[in-house]
Amino acid sequence: MNSTFTGSSRVYVYQTLRDSITSLNLKPGAAISEKEIAAELNVSRTPVREAFLQLAHDQLLEVLPQRGSFVTLIDLEQVEDARFIREQLEVGIVRLACSTFTEAVRQDMETNLMLQGQMMKNQKYDELFKLDGAFHRLIASSCGKLKVAEMIQHMNVHFDRLRMLSLSSNLNWPAIYKHHQEILSAIIDQDANRAEKVMKEHLSLITVDQVALKEQFPIYFK
């Protein structure tokens, strides 16, 4: 965890913990304490307590009186709800991108894909996870829907935890990469129907992974 930050201590602690939960550095079911987090991040316990309350509101942390605070287990119903909402929004975005795409964004996305290929080859799943998110934000940026992408990212943490688990287990990396290539190709060709079709297939991969991941990591799931 990085001790440098801007903004209030509460926001810093909240975002740091949220990122750690999303990336699975803090694993589902893990116990965390206000005292230890305050010491690690070099802040007082007040912003930590406030961050814990916000994380509990986000259903990422379970605070049990007399027992402590625990990272919530992955809830597949919440994952599916997030996937459904994300699909509706991202299909709209990718269709719009087909008519607003620019050469500058194309170059950025091609660079992103090149880096994805390198990270996949080197099995650096944490970097691949970041590049995956950046790829989708570039699509949104190309059609002026970056705020929508930020909204998706905020509500997507339960979906993202399962996706990170999938990446770290080496499931579907080639399929993810191939979908990204096909999405970019469809956008360049201004083929909105093909872009929509591939985006739906892309976001359905996590549903395919669920059974295998639950068998492999049963203690992580609700």
Taking pLDDT < 50 over at least 5 consecutive residues as the criterion, the unreliable ranges are: 1-7
Number of domains: 2
What is the assigned CATH homologous superfamily of the largest domain? Answer: GntR ligand-binding domain-like
Oligomer: single chain
CATH class of the largest domain: Mainly Alpha
Measured by DSSP, the beta-strand proportion falls in: under 5%
Main beta sheet strand tally, sense and closure: 3 strands, antiparallel
Indicate the CATH topology of the largest domain. Four Helix Bundle (Hemerythrin (Met), subunit A)
What's the pLDDT, averaged over the residues? 88
List SSEs in N-to-C order: HEHHEEHHHHHHH
Give the structural class: mainly alpha
Q: Which percent bin holds the helix content?
A: over 70%
| Count of alpha and pi helical runs | 10
Q: What is the 3D form?
A: globular
Radius of gyration: 18 Å
Any overview of this molecule?
The chain has ten helices and three strands, in the order αβααββααααααα. With 222 residues, it is mainly alpha-helical. It has two domains: 9-71, Arc Repressor Mutant, subunit A, CATH 1.10.10.10; 76-220, GntR ligand-binding domain-like (Four Helix Bundle (Hemerythrin (Met), subunit A), Up-down Bundle). A three-stranded antiparallel sheet has the order 1-3-2. Strand 2 and strand 3 (68-71) form a beta hairpin. Helix 2 (34-41) packs across helix 3 (45-57), helix 4 (76-97) crosses helix 6 and helix 5 (103-122) packs antiparallel against helix 9. The two termini are 27 Å apart. The model is unreliable at 1-7 (pLDDT under 50). Keywords: DNA-binding, Transcription, Transcription regulation. It comes from Alkalicoccobacillus plakortidis. Residues 7-74 form the HTH gntR-type domain. It holds the Pfam family GntR.
